[in-house]
Design brief:
Elements lengths: L1 H42 L2 H20 L3 H25 L1 H19 L5 H19 L3
Amino acid sequence: MQSKKLIVPIILATSLTLAACGTKEETKKEAPKTTEEASNSKAVSIADGAQDMKQVLADMKTKLTAKDAAKVKDSGEELEEKWQVFEDSVKEKSPDLYEKVETPLHTIEAGAKVEPLDAKTLDKAATELDGVLTEVQNLK
């Protein structure tokens, strides 16, 4: 009879213990990402980030001329990675300029994944993004 009374508290205690363990693990995994993201954001200025993106764009245009779809796709992904490092800073300082970057960037990302490549659309978006990145570089 006593064992029946203890079953509910034991099950409750076990489930709370297991739930707490899961929460601690998730917190540990998320903490390094946050620190890593913060160090990346501080390490790259807006001007440097924009310059990095312009270099990737120039490389992508070369690959686009060579019609190398796989490398154009890689360049599209690399552009997004470079943008993520400093995009929050741009968004804080100039939301309008942020939107001007996002539009051609999304066009490039989507267009780079499509086969066959639409070279005309990608080239137009890359040229537009290059111009906007020049404005971003001058952002104070």
